[in-house]
C-alpha cells in the first residue's frame, strides 16, 4: 500500500528524496515570488514517484482486462480508496487526505501515464463530486456523504440535489460501448417521477 495521508508525506519524501530535489528545495524565493509549477517540493516529488510506482505495479497489469470488461477492477477501486486517492483535497475532518490542488494534478498525471480511465475516475470523483460538497454542502451533508465519498467503495440557475442510488424511479442504463477509456464507465441515468426531499438540496435553491 502507498498511503497518501498527509501525516506520512514527510516519511515518503525521505524515501524518495534525490540530490536534485534536495537542491531545489533549498533554493530561496522571496515571499512575493511564487514558486514555478515545474519546481516541485520534496513532498510533491515523493508523491509523484509513489503514485507512479503504484500505477505501474498495481494498475498496469490490469489495464487490458479492464478495457475488455468496460469497468474498473474492484480491487483497483478499493486500492484507490484505501490509499486516500478518492479524497485528495478533502480536509482530514471529513476523512480526506487534506492535500492541495497541485498534488491532485500530480496524481492524475501519473495515473494517466498508465490508464486514462482510472485517472478519469479519480479526477471526476475529486474535482466534480467532492469539491461540490465542499463548496455547497451543509455541514450535515458533508458529515453524512463526504466522509463516505472519501473512504467507501461506494451552473447558476440550476439546483443540485443528492439522489441516493436506491431512490424509486432512478435507473441506470447499460454502459456505452465507447471508442476509448472504456474502463471508465459512461451510462445514461434515467429519472422517472423521482421524488427528492428538500433536505437533499445541495447548496442553495436556484444557485
TrEMBL record:
It comes from the Eukaryota. Transmembrane segments: none annotated. One of its GO terms (molecular function) is flavin adenine dinucleotide binding. GO terms for biological process: fatty acid metabolic process. GO terms for cellular component: mitochondrion. Pathway: Lipid metabolism. Its cofactor is FAD. The keyword Oxidoreductase applies. InterPro entries: Acyl-CoA_Oxase/DH_mid-dom_sf, AcylCoA_DH/ox_N, AcylCoA_DH/ox_N_sf, AcylCoA_DH/oxidase_NM_dom_sf. Residues 41-151 form the Acyl-CoA dehydrogenase/oxidase N-terminal domain. The keyword Lipid metabolism applies. Keywords: FAD, Fatty acid metabolism, Flavoprotein, Lipid metabolism, Oxidoreductase. PANTHER family: ACYL-COA DEHYDROGENASE, SHORT_BRANCHED CHAIN SPECIFIC ACYL-COA DEHYDROGENASE, MITOCHONDRIAL. This is Acyl-coenzyme A dehydrogenase. It comes from Operophtera brumata.
Amino acid at each position: 500500500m502507498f498511503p497518501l495521508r498527509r501525516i506520512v508525506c514527510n516519511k515518503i519524501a525521505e524515501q524518495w528524496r534525490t540530490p536534485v530535489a534536495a537542491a531545489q528545495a533549498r533554493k530561496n524565493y522571496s515571499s512575493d515570488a511564487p514558486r514555478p509549477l515545474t519546481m516541485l517540493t520534496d513532498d510533491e516529488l515523493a508523491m509523484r514517484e509513489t503514485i507512479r510506482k503504484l500505477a505501474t505495479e498495481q494498475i498496469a497489469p490490469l489495464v487490458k482486462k479492464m478495457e475488455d470488461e468496460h469497468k474498473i477492477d474492484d480491487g483497483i477501486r478499493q486500492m484507490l480508496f484505501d490509499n486516500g486517492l478518492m479524497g485528495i483535497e478533502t480536509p482530514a475532518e471529513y476523512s480526506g487526505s487534506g492535500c492541495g490542488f497541485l498534488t491532485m494534478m500530480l496524481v492524475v498525471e501519473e495515473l494517466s501515464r498508465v490508464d486514462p480511465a482510472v485517472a478519469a475516475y479519480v479526477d471526476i470523483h475529486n474535482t466534480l463530486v467532492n469539491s461540490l460538497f465542499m463548496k455547497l454542502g451543509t455541514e450535515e451533508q458533508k458529515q453524512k456523504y463526504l466522509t463516505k465519498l472519501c473512504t467507501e467503495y461506494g451552473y447558476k440557475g440550476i439546483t443540485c440535489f443528492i439522489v441516493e442510488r436506491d431512490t424509486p424511479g432512478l435507473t441506470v442504463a447499460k454502459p456505452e460501448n465507447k471508442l476509448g477509456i472504456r474502463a471508465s464507465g459512461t451510462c445514461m441515468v434515467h429519472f422517472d417521477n423521482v421524488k427528492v426531499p428538500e433536505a437533499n438540496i445541495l447548496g442553495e435553491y436556484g444557485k
